[in-house]
Amino acid sequence: MIHIHLRLIARVLAAAACLTGAGCRQHRSEDNESARGSGRVTVAVKVAKTVERDAVLTVEAFGKTDALRKEKVYAPIAGRIISFGANEGAHLQKGDLIAIIQTKESHAAILGAETMLRTAATPEQKAEAEHTLELVRSGETSINVLAKRDGVVATQSVSEGELVVENAELVTVIDLSSIDFLADVLLKDPPLVHAGLPATIRFSAMGTRDFPAIVEAISPQTDIQSQTVKVRLAFPASANSCPRLFPSLPNR
After folding, report:
1. Per-residue pLDDT tens for 34-93?
2. Which of 93, 95, 98, 196 could make a disulfide contact with 86, Cβ separation 3.0–4.6 Å?
3. pLDDT in tens, 194-203
């Protein structure tokens, strides 16, 4: 949930007559004596200085974190994933191994040789099948998929051992430094919201801790069904670091 604080200046104006102190009571008594004959009544008035104070109006909305810089990683070939090292939440550096994909031709050849070995009925057939399996394994071809940038795995679409087609999505890697917050603000509230407005964001999984943020932009499009508009909030540099905003993620 986010709380957007709007600063509105309220001016309190003071009327002037006299202070309701001892001196004032004395003057009022004299005035009342002189006013009895005329039927007038003197009313005591308290004087205060004109002051300016801030009134805070709160807009509440729900939303989710989003990353401005994120990259989907796809399988360059069709085949079988024989090694996978990029589970959700994993920190990657440029060049780290995401997956090893065995080509579908190698996978098919190995499956065929293994089937021959299982069905061999004679020692000669078994020896031949073992030799064939050794040959296809030695000639196995595979592709290493490497990380192109530093980041954290936000979504994982496959697992080790799976067969994938060419251009199948493997993972989505995000840049933690580009994380911001997308809030769904009711249509009645955006007139009160503008870029640069301070806000606080509270994550349900982090108790009552509030994170400071700033309204960065308001979408020109609205969601008619939910009667909301997207408002993007940015975290200050001091609050946007991985250890503070995402303490559950390990550092590298």
Report:
1. 555 555 666 677 776 766 666 666 778 888 888 888 899 999 999 999 999 899 889 999
2. 98
3. 888 888 888 8
More confident residue, 54 or 206: 206
Please name the helix (run of DSSP H) or strand (run of DSSP E) that holds residue 91, with its range, or none: strand 91-92
Lookup: tokens for 141: 């071809």
Question: Taking Cα atoms as reference points, which of 116, 12, 98 lies closest to residue 55?
Answer: 12
17: left (phi over 0), alpha (psi -120 to 50) or beta: alpha
Helices of type H across 159-238: none
Which regions of the chain does DSSP assign to beta strands (E)?
2-12, 51-67, 70-74, 79-84, 91-92, 97-103, 142-146, 151-156, 163-164, 169-174, 179-186, 198-202, 210-223, 228-234
Q: Is 212:235 a contact under the CB 8 Å cutoff?
A: yes
